[in-house]
Design goal:
4-stranded mixed β-sheet, binds adenosine-5'-triphosphate, elongated, alpha/beta, Ribosomal Protein S5, domain 2, about 20% strand, Rossmann fold, 19 helices, 3 domains, binds magnesium ion, single chain
Length: about 500
């Protein structure tokens, strides 16, 4: 008897169809799984065998061969257990499939030895694949139901154990299982808000510009000046995620297995803050069974590098290419995995070893050579990826005691969204001002003769490099968009320069 059950596997975050082919014949009793599986898949044989025995269906003494097709792609994980288990029950004649469920659903689930079905990773990708393949839907562990319910326009059948499998195969009714409705977008709720941040108007304005144009920003300031506080609030002023972004980000968290039952969908832009002692693999991605790193977890959101100068040169250097391409490619013998990583970088650092350089004179205890050494630490490999650089001083006591409530995030966000609308039309939703190519800069950032003269003067006075000049144009475009201005005016250039002139390159 030759039977085919549909399931999935994934490489990186890309899900693909796996056909579990089951051949049962007379001959020397034997049970083998072939098709480039890793150890967890070969252990599947023991789990399935024991689970079936414990629910009263011991394997018959037959020659059983299971092939996981396509055999050319390496498979990992325990999510194929359920497909193998169901296939064996049908293949050995314990159950039949009168309603053609096996042809119409992708099956995912891990088995425990008593036949219970345990949750697995990668459900979102499986659901999307089922839709692409025009299947009716997916059969999932009950614990994955919430996550699976987020996938629009497919049917989801949740199972707790083999009793459920038996009643499903013998008593299925197509009408009884509703098709998932389009996902409901829960309004993002943040525990933080810019309303909590007193003063620091210059920093808030810079963060608004950064959020509007997708620009990377570096905050330099004394300990306790509010750098982390400001950075954490950036997601609260970014536009709501689109359906595509939500599905993309959820796929990432789904294969990482970090979706919690209360948040089956990623609807709030991620904020990731890896520690400077983190390994390169945990930040960039990789490992034996290639996993996404922090930069991919930050996709569609914010990557916050606190104490940027403390990150190793190697880590900062390895961020350059992914930041350029908005994706990271990890090669292994015989295959390559690509993860998306389109994030906004917010970096923070102290200005010097003691941290008090910007505080009233006398507080900084660093010597000139200390300052020079620290400057070198900050001007590391990714400084040229930073568009805005701002210095933050600690608030004065009377400013901290101020009772006035600051502008809430929701209001800032409205302006950011308005500025993004111009960019979405300009670049057909492909990218933001920060990612303008040389050609686009010419097209969308023309300067009047008077402003050209002004920029000539600025280049000379501030010794601006070509790179800095381009960044000033991009920033000016965003500042003009925030104002709803079609043209870049001198006032926009002046403000953009104020975020660049301290960067020494
Ligand atoms: N502008 C502000 N408005 C309200 N509270 C503030 C402000 N600035 C700082 N604080 C208070 O000071 C605390 C410390 O701020 P935060 O941790 O953001 O500083 P930091 O610059 O990141 O310091 P470090 O360099 O030590 O990491 C905040 O949690 C907040 O309670
Ligand atoms: Mg901090």
């Amino acid at each position: 008897m030759n039977l085919k059950i549909l399931s999935t596997s994934y490489t990186g975050i890309e899900t693909y169809l796996v056909e579990v082919e089951i051949d049962i014949s007379n001959g020397m009793p034997h049970f083998t799984i072939i098709g480039l599986g890793d150890t967890s898949i070969y252990e599947s044989r023991e789990r399935v065998k024991t689970a079936l025995k414990n629910i009263g269906f011991p394997l018959k003494p037959k020659k059983i061969v299971i092939n996981l097709s396509p055999a050319s792609i390496k498979k990992e994980g325990s999510h194929l257990d359920l497909a193998i288990g169901i296939g064996l029950l049908v293949g050995m004649g314990f159950l039949s499939d009168p309603f053609n469920i096996l042809k119409n659903f992708l099956i995912m689930g891990e088995l425990s030895l008593n036949g219970d079905i345990k949750s697995v990773k990668g459900i979102i990708g499986a659901g999307i694949l089922a839709k692409e393949l025009n299947l009716k839907g997916i059969i999932v562990p009950h614990d994955n139901l919430l996550e699976a319910s987020a996938i629009p326009n497919i049917k989801v059948i949740p199972l707790k154990n083999f009793k459920d499998v038996i009643s499903l195969l013998s008593d299925y009714s197509d009408e009884d299982i509703a098709i998932n409705p389009p996902p409901k977008f829960i309004m993002q709720k943040f525990e933080t808000d810019f309303a909590d941040v007193k003063g620091q108007e210059f920093a808030k304005r810079a963060l608004e510009i950064a959020a509007a144009g997708g620009h990377n920003i570096l905050l330099i300031g004394s300990p306790g000046s509010g750098k982390s506080m400001l950075a954490k609030r950036v997601p609260t002023i970014l536009p709501f995620m689109t359906i595509e972004e939500t599905i993309e980000s959820t796929k990432i968290y789904s294969v990482m297995g970090t979706l919690s039952p209360d948040t089956p969908l990623i609807t709030a832009r991620p904020f990731r803050s890896p520690h400077h002692t983190g390994t390169i693999t945990s930040i960039i991605g990789g490992g034996r069974t290639v996993k996404p790193g922090e930069i991919t977890m930050a996709h569609n959101g914010v990557l916050f590098l606190d104490e940027m100068s403390e990150f190793s040169h190697e880590i900062l250097e390895s961020l350059r290419q992914p930041m350029e391409d908005n994706c990271v490619s990890i090669a292994r013998t015989g295959f390559r995995v690509t993860f998306p990583c389109n994030f906004m970088l917010v970096a923070a650092s102290n200005p010097c070893f003691c941290g008090n350089l910007f505080e009233p004179s006398g507080e900084c205890t660093c010597s000139q050579s200390d300052l020079n050494r620290y400057q070198k630490k900050i001007s590391g490999p990714i400084l040229d990826r930073i568009d805005l650089y701002i210095e933050i001083k600690k608030l004065k006591d009377y400013e901290l005691l101020e009772e006035k409530v600051s502008e809430p995030s929701a209001e800032i966000k409205l302006r950011v969204e308005k500025a993004r609308k111009f960019q979405n039309i300009r670049f057909s939703n492909k990218h933001l001002n920060s990612d303008m190519s040389g050609k686009e800069l010419k097209k969308y950032c023309p300067l009047s003769l008077e402003n050209k003269d002004f920029m000539k003067l600025s280049i000379k006075s501030f010794s601006l490099s070509g790179r800095s000049f381009d960044k000033i144009l991009k920033l000016s475009r965003t500042i003009a968009d925030l104002e709803g201005s079609k043209t870049i005016e001198k006032i926009h250039l002046l403000e953009a320069i104020s975020y660049r002139k301290k960067i020494l390159f």
